[in-house]
Amino acid sequence: MNKPVMYLLAGNGSSARWWDDVLEHFQRYEVIPLELPGFGANPAPPCEDLPAYAEALLGATVKGRAIMAVGVSALLVLHALQRRPGHFSRSVLLAPVGAFLWQRRLPALMSPMPIRKTIHWLLAHRPTLFAGKFSRHTWSAAQYRRMGEGYARCRAFVPYWDLLRADTALPLLEWIKDPVELVWGDQDGVLGIEQAAAWSAILARADLTISLKPGWGHYPWIDAPAEFAEWLESGAPGFVAHTKGGRLRLAELAGQPVPTALSLHDADDGRLPTLLASQPEALWAVRSSSYGEDQADSANAGLSTTYLRVPAVDVAERVSALCSAGVEEVVVQRFITPVLSGIAFVRHLAVELEWVEGHLEALADGQASPERAVISRLGEGWSSGAFATAHGLHQEQLWDFLQGVLRVFHYVPGDVEWAWDGQQLWLLQYRPISDYGWRRHLTAANIAEILPPQPSRFVEYGQRRAAASIPAIMARWDARVLQDNEPFTAVFGGASYINNDLFLARLADWGIAASRYAGEVGGATPYLPWRPARLLRSLPVFMRMQRQARGHLPTLERQLQRFDRELATLSRQGADGQQLADWFTRFYVFVVQGNLCIATALASSGGDALGRPPTAYDDLHDCPHRLPWETDPGTPRPALSDLPLQAFPHWPLRVRLAHAAGLPGLRGYYLQVREWYRDNLMRVFFRLHHAMPQAEREHWFAPHPDIRSRAGSFWQDGREGSEQAAGFMIYPGQVQGILGRDILLEDTLDPGRHAHYQAARAVIARMGGRLSHGSTLLRELRKPSAVLPQVDMTWVGREVVYADGELRLVTP
Fold first, then answer.
1. What are the C-alpha distances in Å from 499 to residues 157, 519, 677, 782?
2. Is the dihedral of CA 711, 714, 715, 718 positive or negative?
3. What angle do helix axes 577-603 and 539-552 make, rounded to 10 degrees?
4. Helix H segments across 662-723?
5. Whole-angstrom Cα distance, residue 322 to residue 302?
6. Is 635 exposed, middle or buried (0-12, 13-18, 19+ CB in 10 A)?
7. What is the distance between the alpha carbons of residues 572 and 593, in angstroms, rounded to a whole number?
């Protein structure tokens, strides 16, 4: 009888021989050590990025087999699962790398190339110098020599540190739904068990279990090979991470003040009497911890009864009652008698509080009305009320406690139940927030220019899934964006809008007035003043931002070509709508990240002294891929035709040198890149539209049921913004005609309507920004135009004069 196959994949520097000690101990599995490109005896060169390594891993493995992976290779398994769900029948990951990368010391230490090469040489030729890092056990000379040989043969070790970045490590992993088994050793000197809580938040939708192994280090298959193989083959389950009890245990392991608790599956668990006997005078809370409660996409809280102030003698009976009601897991937790307690909806930028005197049950039962406050880092516009000092608890104390809980769970916004007993704060529960109307500032500006008010299901699917991953690229110049953990778009009334908080948080930290942002993208924002001291401190950030954004532009062509090849492969293989939608999600992350880097390069371009070369808008006569609402792949297209991607614009030597040196005067050339990029994206969208199977178009290309009904800017909790968007001239000129016919009046500027703009005498938009694609198009067309938010709608159909950014009615 054939044994099931399990692949073995060690981390950076590894070779297949690192597994030699453990191979003979496997009985149930046929194990196959893997070597990816650039590792061990694999002759292929190192891959260019993590997605390429994920594809290499998928290509080297057969669907339906199990895998055990370690460290950075464990991260590759997750990337592979994100691309191809269900590829591995079992995924066991030991101490995965990827959480808190921007805060860890080792990646920063290995950033300079000389240090990296020196460490690589020492690992290869003097591995015993790192014996304490490898293990707390003393290995044999042969084992150290084998480790050194692995590092010596690993051509990927040095470049891998450039691939493993905070902005590339975790995109879209929150959408993995496969079973994943994480395991940590409590003696791991590389990655400690406190990271387990972070991974429970990162893998928010995975069927996730976690095992904590006493005595294990980072290389248990070398330290104790027989025990390691036996555990791996036993399939011994860890604890379920995504439950009330699971998250409390993870928080406690990460150092949070959690009242003594135990998760049980039945009242006969032998650990229960021991727990109760350890605190004989205590009262207890007995609560359900069902697998369907408190999930990333559905709260389902309060499905079962919660018992409070339960004496020890009655605890087992209460546990039995909950288990009999169908609860999969029950939490028994020492009851805290609070003088204050509350619920906090916590994100890094703000905390929204509700609290009552005494226990939270008074709030849950409707016996008390809570006090409320919103405390924000951004300023008065985002805040309301305050937490007044009570029973010795200060607002700063509570803020620090809640932010500490948030950090443990990798800054993923959460709903935190807390209690203050007069001496200290206690964490009673953390759960992900599935639906909450934050005091977050949203806008339809920019998004209304490229997507219809009711986009297709297809584009809305990709947009929502990509939203949390897109901002990571901004960490290349300011890692604080990863702590903010703000999505690129947020949902209001079932529709997606741009999340202003993502960008305004950076401006607030940099000391830049919000009006600059509003003018670039359109709309209006709450008040953020200039802060000269912060501005000066941020100069190194600006220099890094300019360097990183400019450096990203030449990479766009290669990545576009790779995505185009992937789409062609999917099309040849007859991919279904779901596969195309998942591919589009990854593509959407790339698309918007590219646009963010181009916009950043434009913002620091310093004028167009070096010239204004023509853009893609210079020739739009035979372009079936350019049409109204062209950014939605669900928009009907003409028949399929051959539209190859266009090469990156050729720049004169002086421009290339200025670009590399970070000199000003390149605005015209960066605009050229932006419109080249957009035109190529529309070529890909054209092919994507035709790749969708005809039978599935009715579903995926149908309008999303929720309409983007809000114009301008507003708060996510539904309140209108009081700020007024500013108008500006796009292109000068003076024309006269009927408003709405000769002089077009648009809600937003859609570059796909270029034919209409060419035919009009002038174009007026009620919303838009200076850097929008529509504004660029109108400048290229040299069409008299402006953004004027306050046009009197009674003028439509009447004769008006447009003159250099002003509109006036022609009186009879």
1. 38, 16, 23, 32
2. negative
3. 130
4. 667-691, 694-700
5. 12
6. buried
7. 28
Q: Which CATH number fits domain 5-240: 3.40.50.1820, 3.30.70.1790, 3.40.920.10, 3.40.630.30?
A: 3.40.50.1820
Neighbours of 80 (CB within 10 A): 25
> What is the structure's pLDDT at 806?
87
Task: Pick left, alpha or beta for residue 709 (phi over 0 → left; psi -120 to 50 → alpha; otherwise beta).
Answer: alpha
Q: Give the max Cα distance, the chain.
A: 99
> How many of the other CB atoms lie within 10 Å of CB of 351?
23
- Name the DSSP letter for residue 358: S
Classify domain 254-431 at the CATH superfamily level: ATP-grasp fold, B domain (3.30.470.20)
Tell me if the domain spanning 727-809 has CATH number 2.130.10.10.
no
Handedness of CA 120, 121, 127, 131 (dihedral sign): negative
Cβ(457)–Cβ(701) below 8 Å: yes
Average confidence (pLDDT) over 435-453 = 88
From edge to edge, which strands make up the β-sheet containing 330-334?
Answer: 261-264, 330-334, 283-288, 307-311
Burial class (CB in 10 A: 0-12, 13-18, 19+), 387: buried
In terms of pLDDT, which residue wins out, 155 or 108? 155
**pLDDT value of residue 298:** 67
How many Å apart are CA 264 and CA 243, to the nearest integer?
12
| pLDDT tens sequence across 380-427 | 889 988 888 889 999 999 999 999 999 999 999 999 999 999 999 999
Per domain, the residue ranges of the chain are: 5-240, 254-431, 441-700, 727-809
- pLDDT value, residue 666: 95
Question: Which residue has tokens 């030597």?
Answer: 653
Query: How far apart are alpha carbons 259 and 252 in whole angstroms?
Result: 9
Structure confidence at residue 236 (pLDDT): 87
**Which residues, listed in sequence order, are joined to residue 284 by a DSSP beta bridge?**
310, 334
Tokens of 145: 């020599």
Residue 389 and residue 464: Cα distance in Å, rounded? Answer: 40
- pLDDT at residue 794, as a whole number: 87
| Alpha-helix runs per DSSP H in 372-494 | 395-408, 447-450, 457-466, 480-484
CB 556 within 8 A of CB 601: no
State CA 371 to chain mean position distance.
33
Strand partners, 8: 33, 68
Q: Which of 654, 559, 553, 645 is nearest to 613 (CA)?
A: 654
